Amino acid sequence: MAARFPYRMDFGSFETSHLSPEVRRERLSTLQFVADRANVVLVGNPGVGKTALAVACGHAACAEGML
């Protein structure tokens, strides 16, 4: 993958039950925010999965051909 993500992550591997409803996997995995050209801001303490979630979004977008 030309995007050169730091590791492989998908939404199925990411646990979001501890996150607020606004960032749940069900909402982000549709990638509607990309089509809407909306920003997604991931905020939280170290180790809660901000980078993993961003990587999962990136992998999903690439898989859908959103280059």
Detailed description of the structure:
The chain is mainly alpha-helical. It has one domain. 33% of the residues lie in helices and 0% in strands. The chain is built from 3 helices and no strands. It is globular, with a radius of gyration of 12 Å. The N and C termini lie close together (11 Å). The model has no long low-confidence stretch (mean pLDDT 80).
Summarize, please:
The protein is mostly helical and 67 residues long. Helices cover 33% and strands 0% of the residues. The mean pLDDT is 80.
Please give the largest β-sheet: none
Number of domains: 1
Q: How many individual β-strands? A: 0
Strand content: under 5%
Order of helices and strands: HHH
The pLDDT mean sits at 80
Radius of gyration: 12 Å
